[in-house]
Design goal:
heterodimer; A: alpha+beta; Enolase-like, domain 1; five-stranded antiparallel sheet; four-stranded antiparallel sheet; 12 strands; globular; B: alpha+beta; Aldehyde Oxidoreductase, domain 3; Aldehyde Oxidoreductase, domain 4; 3 domains; six-stranded mixed sheet
């Protein structure tokens, strides 16, 4: 860990050298590992921004609300089950107690080549140095949204719920406040894997709005992993359905554990629209979702597991009482 | 009310542990301590060509950067423990420019503060001339050596190959077990301080007298000038039995700086500065007559080890002796690769090798169309087949029967894929557990005070198993006292020596000598001796040489019993029954219940015995389903060296765990009939799980851990 300055932020914006400290559950880890070397930490925990509120427009979440608090909120559980579940199934209780929503969506990848600077090759940590994971230990890495430069998987869960439900994110920066689609926050690695988001320098996430919709109540998050708790997803699916009897009016689908960013499965959604939801249609949709998958050895099982996970999630959501 | 053997009692050190009163090695506050941070090698094979240390040395508070440039010759070469020495690895870091494995210590940075030491370590640049390493089995450049070349005796009897060829029913399969790391919660910390030429070490140790003598040899000092303090140990599992090389480096740094030095390595560094369970490959052939009687057993194993050290576990010594079989052939090979030296990890031979044997027994049961419990009953024996030694006691059949009854085994439908609960395929599996019963030469001092309290002092170790309580109960038994009146002191090299906490020998070794001391106290009291009565006792178990006492005082263990030596075979037995559920679509494996029935001699301290066996069953589930150290085949580096990605079971993975303890009296094994239970619970559990997965799915897992992708075909 390198020396850094620390102060309590009175409010955004910060200058370009500022790194925001909220729960610290990713940042402090990576500082100790010498992966992140911020010069200035501004502690935002005094800023409030902890709102959890439902109204006719939808669900309003402050960026500093803690994961555990939102996961345990009975209203969120009832009206936006996919949001509550994606938070409850992430990390451990201790981490959920500390971690903020704003920090959580910016959680850095768990790719081992990124997390240890003694690995020479990592384009994300050290642009142009190559990718250690491409032909290495990559069982947990991505099959969707990858590039020749990077296959690091996006590790979070909550972001899939936000992407699926067309959430908006609110940002505060030098030019004042702005809102954008949450789906536009993360960017695929392409040739610049070091650039992970569209945040401007010094900009701060202040909150999220998840719009109400007829699908929000019939929603769930299914996470498949190597152990029952405290593990990253091998594959996960955030699913929300608006059904007319057995027929899908609208399906909202996002995938986790398999992609470089929170992954909206638009092809699968389009495939389901107007169809009777059953094993066959769910399977076709899952095939569409993974049509573009590219595997790299150890993660060759992920497209198949991802398809199965999505089918299971869709059929579970169909059976929900909403 | 006097307590004694069999008293159900909470841990006498439990309150101290849960209230923070128990001081572990890194809790001890030493004045004026300097902090060390390790720099470890990024390459697995090659040479260090230089250091850029100006930036590191410029960090305020840095005292010294130790490398081979200034430490060469500081630590003496000592023998590998398996050759009668003390060290678990003969690779001496900071001795030369040679790199033997990834994560080898290449520098030790010492500073006034931990933060400065860490920052300086991160600013130190090391230049290497790298060579392509051999990471493991499939790599070019590994060297395969028969374990028999290193003195290992491959057990065998009869003509297994001819019998296999001629037999009516046979199975043949290859199995593998993964690299696994102990990951005790307490890191591999060391604090070294010198005063008047005498060295004090605060370090969690499974063998304080071994550490004392080993470090003395490494630093070329008188063992009498070394004091090792290790009253509490935050998990050991074999990782703290032999000496790691970091201790001598910390002690030498403290000597040179004239200041105590404290090292708290990282979790990741623990993967490479200590030992681990090496991956194995195994091939098993079993043949039987149509009535299920074994005719031939062939078991071959390959185990990875480091380049310089001939470490192997050789579990065929056990698997060849469990069942009645007239024709047995075994062979163990070591595969030298560019890796750190592996070492003991809970049930070192039995956990991997019993996985293969007990999986093969399940395969044979299906080939015979026979219940797998019945197959094990049919092949039970009261004599091990290699030398024909009688078992001192053996109640495997009792374990199978009691376990099957309690588990409801008769409700199992035998065909694979025949049991189901909604979306989940259900499978039930069984396996045998065995652990050789060891007892070692030990000493203890027991003092009966005039006020009716007593003190037991011995340099035995409570590695979290409950040894404090078990040893206290032995004194309570011997003196007719309540446990509350007994103080137990362990884990200090100034105390009379006791063996390494390994091979599940502590309870047998120490209780026997404590009882001996107590008998002497009672005799003296009966003769009218007044005041405090202090008795020092030594116990050399039957079959061990008298000079084993002298050797113990030099930090060398003498362990007897087990399956191979002496006039009889001694082992504890068990039967593991386990249920899995496998999701029919996404293939997660869940374990709703596991039951172990054990016959393990006299149970000294029932509550802690149940705790050990329960923990063993849980470990067995983790060993089968979760634990695997991932290795990059190109760089020979461990990739998931953290507790988020090195998976062990969490609470949610463990549901119903049941332990049955059968009554067993065995005065043949040792006077008190104690067999040891520390490692018994996890043996066979991995096979029971794999067998249950086969029963649930029809897919036979032969490679651990069982993972989702293996079950998706």
């Amino acid at each position: 860990m390198r020396p850094f300055s620390y102060d309590r932020a009175a409010g955004a914006p910060g200058d370009a050298g500022t790194t925001w400290l909220a729960g610290g559950t990713t940042l402090l880890d990576l500082m100790k590992l010498d992966v992140m070397r911020p010069e200035r930490l501004a502690d935002i925990n005094g800023l409030g921004l902890a709102e959890v509120r439902l109204d006719a427009q939808g669900l309003h979440l402050g960026a500093l609300a803690r994961m555990a608090e939102v996961a345990g909120n009975a209203e969120v559980q009832r009206h936006f089950p996919v949001v509550a579940q994606s938070l409850a199934l992430a990390a451990s209780q201790q981490l959920r107690n500390m971690a903020s929503l704003g920090g959580n969506v910016l959680q850095r990848t768990r790719c081992p080549y990124f997390r240890d600077p003694s690995h020479a090759a990592c384009n994300k940590r050290n642009p142009g140095s190559g990718c250690g994971a491409m032909d290495g230990a990559n069982r947990l890495q991505a099959v969707l949204g990858t590039s020749d430069a990077c296959i690091a998987a996006y590790p979070g869960d909550f972001a899939q719920a936000l992407v699926a439900l067309d959430a908006e994110v609110t940002l505060r920066g030098a030019a004042g406040e702005r809102r954008m689609r949450f789906a536009d926050l993360h960017v695929q690695p392409g040739t610049t894997p070091e650039r992970e988001t569209t945040l401007r320098p010094g900009e701060l996430i202040t909150g999220f709005t998840v719009p109400a919709g007829p699908w929000a109540a019939r929603s769930l998050y299914l996470k498949v992993r190597d152990r029952e708790s405290y593990a990253f997803a091998l594959a996960s699916a955030a699913v929300a359905l608006d059904l007319d009897g057995k027929v899908v009016r609208e399906a909202r689908i996002a995938l986790g554990g398999v992609a470089t960013v929170p992954w909206r499965a638009a092809e699968a959604e389009a495939d389901l629209r107007g169809k009777v939801l059953d094993e066959a249609s769910a399977t076709r949709a899952a095939e569409a979702a993974f049509a573009a998958a590219r595997t790299h050895g150890e993660n060759a099982f992920k497209p198949e597991l991802g398809r199965r996970t999505l089918v299971r999630a869709l059929l579970l959501a169909k059976r929900m009482e909403a | 009310m006097p307590d004694g053997f069999g008293t159900d009692h909470q841990r006498i050190d439990g309150r101290a542990k849960v209230t923070g009163g128990a001081r572990y090695a890194s809790d001890v506050v030493v004045g004026n301590v300097a902090h060390a941070w390790l720099v470890t090698s990024a390459i697995a094979r090659g040479r260090i060509t230089g250091f850029e240390d100006a930036e590191a040395r410029a960090v305020p508070g840095v005292l010294e950067v130790f490398t081979h440039r200034n430490m060469q010759g500081a630590v003496a070469e000592t023998e590998f423990f398996a050759k009668g020495g003390y060290v678990g690895s003969t690779i001496r870091p900071l001795e030369s420019d040679q790199v033997w494995h990834a994560g080898q210590i290449v520098a030790l940075v010492v500073a006034d503060t931990l933060e400065a030491a860490r920052e300086a370590a991160q600013r130190l640049r090391v230049r290497y001339a790298e060579e392509a390493p051999a990471a493991g089995f499939d790599a070019a450049g590994v060297e395969v050596v028969a374990a028999s070349d290193a003195g290992f005796e491959d057990a065998g009897v009869g003509d297994a190959d001819s019998a296999f060829a001629a037999a009516a029913v046979k199975v043949e399969a290859s199995y593998s077990t993964p690299t696994q790391h102990h990951n005790p919660i307490e890191l591999f910390t060391t604090t070294a301080s010198w005063a008047g030429g005498k060295l004090t070490l605060h370090e969690g140790s499974q063998f304080v007298h071994g550490l004392k003598h080993g470090i003395a040899a490494q630093l070329r000092i008188d063992p009498a000038d070394v004091h090792v303090v290790s009253p509490f140990i935050g998990g050991a599992f074999g990782a703290r039995g032999s000496i790691t090389q970091r201790t001598a480096l910390v002690a030498e740094a403290a000597r040179r700086l004239g200041r105590p030095v404290k090292l708290v390595p990282t979790r990741a560094q623990g993967f490479t500065i200590a030992t681990y369970r090496a991956e194995t490959r195994q091939q098993v052939k079993l043949a039987a007559s149509r009535d299920g009687r074994l005719q031939a057993l062939v078991h071959e194993g390959w185990e990875v080890t480091s380049r310089p050290d001939a470490y192997k576990v050789g579990g065929t010594a056990t698997t060849s002796r469990i069942y009645a079989c007239p024709n047995v052939r075994t062979k163990v090979h070591m595969v030298h690769a560019d890796r750190n030296t592996p070492g003991f990890m809970r049930s070192p031979p039995e956990l991997p090798y019993m996985f293969a044997l007990e999986s093969a027994m399940d395969e044979l049961a299906y080939a015979l169309d026979m219940d797998p419990v019945q197959l094990r009953r049919i092949n039970d024996t009261q004599r091990e087949p290699i030398k024909g030694l009688p078992y001192s006691s053996r109640n495997l059949v009792g374990c199978l029967d009691a376990g099957a009854r309690a588990f409801g085994w008769e409700r199992r439908s035998p065909a694979p894929r025949s049991m189901r609960d909604g979306e989940w395929q259900v499978g039930w599996g069984v396996a045998t557990s065995i652990y050789p019963a060891h007892i070692g030469t030990a000493t203890a001092r027991v003092t009966l005070l005039p006020d009716g309290r007593a003190r037991v002092q011995t340099a035995a170790h409570d590695v979290g198993t409950g040894a404090y309580t078990a040893i206290g109960l032995a004194a309570a038994e011997g003196l007719g006292l309540a446990l509350e009146r007994i103080v137990v002191e362990l884990g200090d090299s100034d105390l009379p020596p006791a063996p390494v906490a390994g091979g599940s020998n502590t309870t047998a070794s120490v209780c026997n000598v404590v009882i001996k001391a107590c008998e002497e106290i009672r005799a003296r009291r009966a003769q009218g001796q007044q005041g405090a009565i202090e008795v020092y006792a030594e116990n050399v178990p039957e079959g061990l040489p008298p000079d084993s006492i002298g050797k113990l005082y030099q930090g060398r263990n003498a362990l007897g019993g087990g399956l191979e030596g002496g006039k009889q075979a001694m082992a504890a037995f068990g039967a593991i029954f386990l249920e899995v559920r496998v999701h029919d679509r996404t293939r997660e494996v869940r374990v709703p219940r596991v039951l172990g029935a054990f016959a393990a001699g006299r149970i000294v301290s029932p509550r802690q015995a149940r705790s050990q066996l329960t923990g063993g069953l849980i470990w067995g589930i983790g060993a089968a389903l979760h634990e695997q150290t991932e290795i990059d085949p190109r760089s020979a580096r461990y990739m998931n060296d953290n507790m988020a990605e090195y998976l062990v079971p969490v609470n949610a993975d463990i549901r119903q765990v049941e332990v049955l303890l059968l009554d067993e009296q065995d005065t043949q094994a040792n006077p008190l009939g104690i067999k040891g239970i520390g490692e018994l619970g996890n043996v066979g559990t991995n096979a029971a799980l794999a067998n249950a997965v086969f029963h649930a799915t029809g897919t036979r897992p032969r490679d651990l851990p069982v993972r989702i992708e293996h079950l998706m075909a």
